[in-house]
Amino acid sequence: MLGFLKRPVVVTADINLNVVALTAVGLLSRLWQLAYPRAVVFDEVYYGQYISFYMKRIFFLDGSGPPFGHMLLALGGYLGGFDGNFLWNRIGAEYSSNVPVWSLRLLPALTGALSVPMAYQILLELGFSHCAAMGAALLMLIENALITQSRLMLLESVLIFFNLLAVLSYLKPFSLSWWFWLMLTGVACSCAVGVKYVGVFTYLLVLAVASVHAWHLIGDRTLSHVGAAVEQAAALLVVPALMYLLFFYVHLILVYRSGPHDQVMSSAFQASLEGGLARITQGQPLEVAYGSQVTLKNVFGKPVPCWLHSHQSTYPMIYENGRGSSHQQQVTCYPFKDVNNWWIVKDPGRHQLVVGSPPRPVRHGDVGQLGHGMPTRFLNTHDVAAPLSPHSQEVSCYVDYNISMPSQNLWRLDIVNRESDADVWKTILSEVRLVHVNTSVALKLSGAHLPDWGFRQLEVVGEKVSRGYHESMVWNVEEHRYGKSQEQKERELELHSPAQMDVSRNLSFMARFLELQWRMLTVKSDGSEHKYSSSPLDWVTLDTSIAYWLHPRKSAGGSQGPPVPSQAQIHLLGNVVIWASASLATVVYALLFLWYLLRRRRSIRDLPEDSWLRWVLAGALCAGGWAILLLPAVLQHISDHLCRSPPLRSLFSALVVAWYSCACHVFITLRPLTYGDKSLSPSELKALRWKDSWDILIRKY
């Protein structure tokens, strides 16, 4: 029974030493002096802020991409014991002793290093030779821009890693482990999208190839192949969707405290965070009733989040353009919390400004008045043009001048997100439109800044409902309390007193996810062009580079003179030989593909069927995503199929070796700008500007 113990347990494994060697040199190139420079380099100034937010559990919003990449960087900070205490305010600032620089840069370095053997594996899975695969890995290894990005606290190398992992996993052949690789493909695709939105292009590329593959499988009519197509759909559609939701779920669990980015979110979202608005709104009544004291926040939140506001100043009698106004009290939208943001919901059939017992809730379709808390003038609009939006109506608080302009201050409540026509107006949760009864205009934030007479506050207008729905017409109650005093002075004191009732308004995860995703997709910068901005063509032709870091210190000048500035610096600069050759290889591939396609149309088969399918798949994946991987494939194709005679093939092989030698020479030449560990003289720096040197050479001759 125990006879198996008489023999030793033997485990055999096939180890590809090429992969081991490539992994080792990849790690060496990325991890060497990883903590240098011990200063903020380029976009570390932005990603570092998000890492600090994670360490302190503070909510933030980054419109550049989903949170998965940020969480991975924060993981490095967590493992290194980072407490989040560092002021990320400028590039070049030296890190304090509490910042674990090596740990923060470790994950990008590891992913950058592992991309080298993955390039090798992808070429093998595509059916190319070990020589071509080693060539692809070498290009990934010595490409200067890839090294620069993978040695810093940036997300580009992480994105590239998941892109390559998705392609490699999908290329794995049918076997007992195929389901594992297929699932890994879905996970890698979701991770690529979760790092940066541009990862969706790799996801779409994999989906396109998988769709063609599934189409051929379905045509086979065998049950197993149909089942494989269904499994593909589950792994490549369901798994990425679930993973994407998981990223946000973990993100929202980690950042549960109020922070500086709260204002772009809805009141309901802000109230779900610890501190901030949640602290202010704690204990508020849920249902808005007649007599309620409320602040109304515009849901659109653009150009800035703001609240319906009024003050004692009136509109000018005559505007600068000669148009007249009603000279009523100004109504604006104010981007700061203020006592003049408070309004009282009044029943037009009663004089009371307090909540009755029991409270009478306001429902969808009810008509009421909004009285400004101080000094209780009612929200009003007439058929008078707004100051900056002449096609809309002016909105004011009515002042009785004893002239023939009676007040028109009745507003109908329209709950936009209601579930039924009997819905009650709820604090924070209800999104409402206030429609003027007499003129059928809706209260709207125009977004225009009033002149100095309006204190540069935002214009509020009445917009015809017939012109269509827009979020700028929608408001929600943010702060709310039940008014209890009829007297003016006592009522003013009430506006500063805390509420008494406690109501829980926790949003569901899906509601928070959908809002956060929408804000991430729609948040915009100020529209100004970034000083480092460039076009994609600039990078293809290497007409641009970015100075990531300049050494801030002085180096000793010795006995020859005073200290001189150190010229050590880091630039994002690609290997010109690799980039130019990869662009050329893409053009060559396209021309050869069209040539073969035309000849196949005429029933001329220049390539065996397996070689043709390999050629098409390599182009779909590499030309559609990674020209640097297409280059060795094109070189092997030329050697195998176009260089038919042995002398010609030997000559071509010698040229390829010479070309790789040139690429290595460029890598070594640009190495000081890649690692930034060598002080360069002005003449050495000028010599590294290959573009300027080439232009001078052309002009000279």
From TrEMBL:
Pfam families membership: MIR, PMT, PMT_4TMC
A GO molecular-function descriptor: dolichyl-phosphate-mannose-protein mannosyltransferase activity
EC nos: 2.4.1.109
Boundaries of every MIR domain copy: 285-348, 359-416, 420-480
InterPro entries the UniProt entry points to: ArnT-like_N, MIR_dom_sf, MIR_motif, PMT-like, PMT_4TMC
Protein's job: Transfers mannosyl residues to the hydroxyl group of serine or threonine residues. Coexpression of both POMT1 and POMT2 is necessary for enzyme activity, expression of either POMT1 or POMT2 alone is insufficient. Essentially dedicated to O-mannosylation of alpha-DAG1 and few other proteins but not of cadherins and protocaherins. Transfers mannose from Dol-P-mannose to Ser or Thr residues on proteins.
Subcellular localization, as worded in the UniProt entry: Endoplasmic reticulum membrane
Superkingdom: Eukaryota
Stretches that traverse the bilayer: 58-79, 118-141, 153-171, 177-195, 200-218, 233-256, 576-597, 612-635, 647-668
Pathway in which the depicted protein is active: Protein modification; protein glycosylation
Class of enzymatic activity (EC top level): transferase
Membrane topology: Multi-pass membrane protein
The protein's name in its UniProt record: Dolichyl-phosphate-mannose--protein mannosyltransferase
Similarity comment: Belongs to the glycosyltransferase 39 family.
Cellular component, GO annotation: endoplasmic reticulum membrane
Record key words, sorted: Endoplasmic reticulum, Glycosyltransferase, Membrane, Repeat, Transferase, Transmembrane, Transmembrane helix
Gene behind the chain: POMT1
Annotated catalysed reactions: a di-trans,poly-cis-dolichyl beta-D-mannosyl phosphate + L-seryl-[protein] = 3-O-(alpha-D-mannosyl)-L-seryl-[protein] + a di-trans,poly-cis-dolichyl phosphate + H(+); a di-trans,poly-cis-dolichyl beta-D-mannosyl phosphate + L-threonyl-[protein] = 3-O-(alpha-D-mannosyl)-L-threonyl-[protein] + a di-trans,poly-cis-dolichyl phosphate + H(+)
